[in-house]
Specification:
mainly alpha
């Protein structure tokens, strides 16, 4: 049952990314191009996501534990450190240059285009490199 829920969640997430056109890097790059061909549609996607998460968290955290675990697994660290800031900067620069972030990049693999394949290879190489330089 747990794996089925994971599969359905992944399919729903991928469909949402496709429907909102977030798998199209041009839409993302145009959203970031405020003084050029600005496309505000991504703002509505983000607002919808924030509303969904806000309401979902209120409802979910009324429970003592999630359905398939004994406890909620929330971050224990609360401080802003060098790793957090540098990771956020690298993520933002990568997103701004390529127009992809990890979720949409993986969802766009379904189309079989070379660009997201190359991006995902580079992304996983970056993940591996970050493990090597971890303190």
């Amino acid at each position: 049952m747990k794996l089925l829920l994971v599969l359905v969640s992944g399919i729903l997430f991928g469909l949402g990314l496709s429907f909102s056109n977030m798998i199209n890097p041009t839409v993302v790059l145009n959203f970031l191009d405020v003084f050029g061909q600005w496309d505000p549609s991504l703002m509505f996607v983000m607002a919808g996501a924030l509303i969904t998460v806000g309401l979902g968290f209120k409802w979910i955290f009324k429970r003592k534990a999630p359905l398939f675990s004994d406890e909620f697994h929330l971050p224990k660290l609360k401080n802003i450190d060098q790793n957090l800031v540098s990771g956020a900067v690298i993520f933002g620069v990568g997103w701004g240059l390529a127009g992809y972030c990890p979720g949409p990049a993986l969802a766009s693999l379904a189309y079989g285009y070379m660009e997201p394949i190359i991006f995902c290879i580079a992304m996983f190489a970056g993940f591996k490199c970050s493990q090597l330089v971890k303190k």
